[in-house]
Specification:
Catalyzes the attachment of glutamate to tRNA(Glu) in a two-step reaction: glutamate is first activated by ATP to form Glu-AMP and then transferred to the acceptor end of tRNA(Glu). This protein is about 45% helix and about 10% strand. It is built from 20 helices and twelve strands.
Length: about 475
Amino acid sequence: MSRPVVTRFAPSPTGYLHIGGARTALFNWLYARGRGGKFLLRIEDTDRERSTPEATAAILQGLAWLGLDWDGEVVSQFDRKDRHAEVAHEMLARGTAYKCFATAAEIAAFREAESAKGVSYPVFLSPWRDADPATHPDAPFAIRMKAPRSGDTVIDDQVQGHVTIQNATLDDMIVLRSDGVPTYMLAVVVDDHDMGVTHVIRGDDHLNNAARQAMVYDAMGWDIPVWAHIPLIFGPDGKKLSKRHGAVGVHEYQAMGYPAAGMRNYLTRLGWAHGDAEFFTDQQARAWFDLAGIGRAPARLDFKKLENICGQHIAAADDAALLHEIVAYRAAAGLEALTGGQENGLLRAMYCLKDRAKTLPELLEKAEFVLASRPISRDEAAQKALDPVSRGILHELTPRLQNVSWSKENLESILTGTATAHGLNFGKMAAPLRSALAGRMVTPSVYDMMLVIGQIETIARLEDAAA
């Protein structure tokens, strides 16, 4: 009987959540959730100088925004250092590791001598590997793993295929330093084993680590997890993603107003495919996602595709959920909070705002008519639309709207009738109406705006503009 799937995301808290890390977390989350398994979170905070509580908080916040919930408590790798040391000593007792008394100066001298001979990657062979314990000095020692000296280590990777590493190219890795501090390579394996991780899905920059880590599993007699090393994300120019390409932190995408569902969809599709499907729901992503669909080539970030996918998710979103996301976006972007009245207005208007907005700022731009209050401020284009002729038409129009039943059919009849009486098509009259109602030219339809803000407010705004 196969074990339940357990995946993990294990970021280092030395900065914000990078978009590449977010996609790694997402792949782990999808794989576990689609199989009824567990998705665990571990903070690899052993680098005490660079790890900060602020960075940890930023990572948790980024995952929460993306909707990637984890099971159980967040694990701190640093807090488990005693357990890591315990395993190093257990390896010593098993004979799969040994005490090495070589000093840092001796190792440096060896590397310098090898480099002088033109050796690019010198492999230090410790003289203490097979030394008689009776010859051990009373001095500080590191614990090194006894790596095989010949043959190959093969990583059977679900994305990269069979990867072969010659054992002669690997030294006896230190698992516990002479100051008693465990190494990262040991800590990762011990944590993954103790947490019951069955599938290690991570960036392919860790592929070389897998060979060393597999040796630790073997040394302890533990089951090796399924490996899946996914390609990195590149910028549009095919180079490693960096600040020069624009936003690289997940928090930046939230502050720019991309909806979380759109980001999940886009990042899932970035380097993974399910037939020709581009737009899909979370439920479909969980059902479809598998390791076989991950490509080997680096994926390229494409902002146009991102916006297109986000636009489709905005259009398909539940109104109340979208309002909740808008409120969170404004907080992340440092914008003024909406009033209760503005939130209610947005909910009423959502049906005519969602269709063509690719980001939340675009939606809010169209929503200005319901967010603004009188007197309506106008941009330059809107001001030009209010010439003396159009003001006269607005002045003539307001009495006709006083006692009418407020429906689209009645409004169409009055507005088109007024336009025809002045020898205009409705398009010519729409511009001053947009100016009067919204103070800008990019808006929903005139009828939708009038229906959303209501009869009293519509007439008041038209009278203001006519005056």
